Structure formats: structure tokens, C-alpha cells
Amino acid sequence: MFKIARRVGIAFGSFVIAWLAVSLVAGWLFGSGNILVWVVAAVVGAGVYLDVLRRDRRVG
Predict the structure, then answer these.
(1) pLDDT score at 60
(2) Nearest C-alpha neighbor of 22 from the set 43, 49, 53
(3) What's the burial of 21, exposed, middle or buried (CB within 10 Å: 0-12/13-18/19+)?
(4) pLDDT of 56
(5) What DSSP string describes 4-36?
(6) Which long-range contacts (CB under 8 A, 24 or more apart) does 50-53 make?
(7) Contact 26, 32 (CB under 8 A)
(8) Rounded distance between C-alpha atoms, residue 50 and residue 53, angstroms
(9) pLDDT tens per residue, the chain (60 residues)?
(10) pLDDT at residue number 34
(11) What confidence score (pLDDT) does residue 10 get?
């Protein structure tokens, strides 16, 4: 159960951090964000999540 909760936490954290970063860049470049911010954040968040899992598997 701890493993599942940890993975969900990592996935949620990855998406939140990606959304904040993409939202900041979109606001700086375009003045505001739209649905594209959510799509790009989902892609970036998934990439970060997969990278964290890959590094975690290598260490542990």
C-alpha cells in the first residue's frame, strides 16, 4: 500500500511542478495561459514522473 501511495504522490507532485513551470513560462511569453498549458504540463509531468521512477529503480 505504501508503494502505491508513494507513486501517486510522485505523480501528483510531478504534474503540479510541471503545471507551475509551464504556466509561468506561458504567462511570461503570451500574457496568459489556455488549454495548451494543461496539455504541455501533462506531457512534461509524465516525463518527469517516468524519469523519477527510472532513477528510483536504478538506486533501489
Answers:
(1) 57
(2) 43
(3) middle
(4) 84
(5) HHHHHHHHHHHHHHHHHHHHHHHHHHHSS--HH
(6) 52/10, 52/14, 53/7, 53/10
(7) yes
(8) 5
(9) 888 999 999 999 999 999 999 999 988 888 887 888 899 999 999 999 999 999 888 775
(10) 84
(11) 92
Measuring CA to CA, how many Å separate 38 from each of 9, 30, 33, 44, 58? Answer: 19, 15, 9, 10, 30
The answer to whether 27 and 33 have CB atoms below 8 angstroms apart is yes
CA distances from 36 to 24, 25, 41 (A): 13, 12, 8
CB atoms within 10 A of CB 15: 18
C-alpha cell at position 17: 511542478
